[in-house]
Amino acid sequence: MSVWKQLYDTYEMNVKHVGEFESRWEGQDFTLLPVSHTTQTAHVTIIVTPDGEFHSATHIEKGQGNTLIPSTEDSANRAGSVVAPYPLHDKLQYVAGDFLKYGGVYKGENAHLAYLRQLKAWVETAPYAPLESIYRYVQKGRLIEDLIQEGVFSATESGELRWTWKEAGDKPPVYGIVTGGLEGTFVRFQVRSTDGMHRQPWRDQAFFDSFITFYAARPGTEGLCFVTGKQERLSSKHTNKIRNSGDKAKLISANDSSGFTFRGRFDKPDEAASISYQASQKAHNALKWLIQRQGRSIDQRVFLIWGNQQPDLPNPLENTLSLAQLFGEEEEFVAHTVQEGALAFSDALLGFKRRLPKQEVNILTLDAATTGRMAILYYRTFDQETYFKRLERWHTEYPWEYTYQDANKKRQVYIGAPSLKDIALMTYGTRGNEKLIKATVERLLPCVIDERRVPTDIIRCLTQRASNPVGMEHWEWEKTLSIACGMVNKKEEMTVSLDQEINDRDYLFGRLLALADYLERRALGQDNRATNAIRYMNAFSQNPARTWMTIQSALQPYQAKLGGKVLFINRQIDEIGARLTIEQFTNKPLSGKYLLGFYSQRHELYQKREETIKQEERVEV
């Protein structure tokens, strides 16, 4: 089943949400758009009375102007000097009858007359009292004059719409909101009802229905819709503004009248595919709604997952703890052992799945190479059971230990998997190129949902960065180290817990490094400077035998300072050194497995520090 059919079905199954406004970020409301509607950023609100008289007007604060408006195919795709009015709310040149009087210039057809013709046809086809009030007002042709008298605009003595220092009073706020000239001011209308309440057309279902009825009655070419499989009125102009209100890129475009990209393949657009207006509107509106509601964006690349009936689903990009919050089981994941963490995640995932209807799971990645064209970079659809099994495997098979700060900045530990963005950031650094980060996240996505191995070059890069702590801040190195261990562990299939029985050369060298770091850190006490083990970590990974001699020599002053308190650590160093054979004690570079030995040994030491100190104190000098 195609992505367009899935999106169309999603719209049909969630049609109850049309016109219901939600908020994901403060001050940014969104809704599942009705058919034949889009969104625009408005700058000025004009309130009219039921009799069609001007009541008041005000500017709209920056960031608050997102407005749901009726739209035609032509107006949604207008560009340049093309005259294609939006049916109700629009820019000054369309809605103001006195646009020419105040210095405006039409480059072609009179835009205001075209606006009035279309609005009149709407009023006559699908009458609605508030709509008629707005129509009677704009017919008067004094919109700009009213805005000047209200103080929204300022005009010079010659009638120009601009503010100068010669004008009395403060500069009207709208001049700082509209980009470019005031001819770009977008005006929206409200109707003041008899009880003093303002009827907002952009939140009024009756307004939506009125325009849908009017626009559905227009003639058009019918044909087979490739999405629904029905004979319906086709569309050749598809919507934009998919990722946000300023997005001009389209997923479907039939504009090939110059350049002839498809010469020799198709003569007409419908030879490639034909999509009905209703299917196009519903699929695109569902996609916009899902992106606003739950999409993840990295440098304009959108990662989206949804279900047809219940859109909210665990996102494969998130870490284990974020998914725990979705399940409502966060406390369960702050676990002390790998087994507890894996079991808690599996149980919570099972409980969450039981609350969901059986449905298809869709995973989609979008990005635009140019300002006008967008592409689907990745699309997969699964049955829900398969998706949850693969998600569970990623988070529970060979997990690692990660730290985070809660709302109170308290350090907590969870067992599981990191987010894909964190993996990408730690692979190339927090200052890494955004394009590289988003490409890496895209490469990691199949590791979760297609059960592929983590790419070798990503593991190698993580290992190299984790081996160079001097070049990073401490928090970044700790995070890089834990993620590097987690990704190496996905390959090596080991655990966080220290395995005393492993005699692998790389693992043993890693343990030696951790013991040296711990011993020197004990001696340094409150001094936070880097230990020799950390400073030489990169050299150690490339030439372990030679560098270990340097590190061990540097340990002697600290061993003398601590005296009998480090005999327990010294014995462990001796024990591990004895397990390295002559053939193993070479300068052959270490693999990422040495990080597992380093992390596990260090984890063991700090987890049982109090017990270790007591053991040291019991040892006789």
Quickly describe the structure:
With 621 residues, the chain is of the alpha+beta class. The protein is 43% helix and 14% strand.
Structure characterization notes:
- This protein has 621 residues and is of the alpha+beta class.
- Helix 1 packs across helix 8 (277-294) and helix 17 packs antiparallel against helix 21.
- 43% of the residues lie in helices and 14% in strands.
- Strand 15 (360-368) and strand 16 (374-383) form a beta hairpin.
- The strands form 6 sheets. Strands 4, 5, 7, 8 and 9 form a 5-stranded mixed sheet that branches. Strands 13-14-15-16 form a 4-stranded antiparallel sheet.
- The radius of gyration is 32 Å and the shape is elongated.
What is the CA–CA distance across the termini? 75 Å
Mean pLDDT: 86
Helix run count? 23
In what range is the share of β-strand residues?
5-15%
Overall strand count: 18
Q: How would you classify the helix and strand content by structural class?
A: alpha+beta
Question: Per the principal axes of the C-alpha atoms, what is the gross shape?
Answer: elongated
Quick one: biggest sheet? 5 strands, mixed
Poorly predicted segments: none
Rg value: 32 Å
The portion of residues assigned to helices is 40-55%
Write the layout of secondary structure elements.
Elements: H1 3-13, E1 22-25, E2 28-30, E3 37-41, E4 44-48, E5 54-59, E6 66-70, H2 73-76, E7 90-91, H3 92-95, H4 111-125, H5 129-139, H6 143-149, E8 186-192, E9 198-199, H7 205-216, E10 222-224, E11 231-235, E12 275-276, H8 277-294, E13 296-298, E14 301-307, H9 320-327, H10 330-333, H11 338-354, E15 360-368, E16 374-383, H12 384-396, E17 400-405, E18 411-416, H13 420-428, H14 434-449, H15 456-466, H16 474-492, H17 505-524, H18 532-535, H19 537-542, H20 544-562, H21 567-579, H22 593-607, H23 609-618
Parallel strand pairs: 4-8
Antiparallel strand pairs: 1-2, 3-6, 4-5, 7-8, 8-9, 10-11, 11-12, 13-14, 14-15, 15-16, 17-18
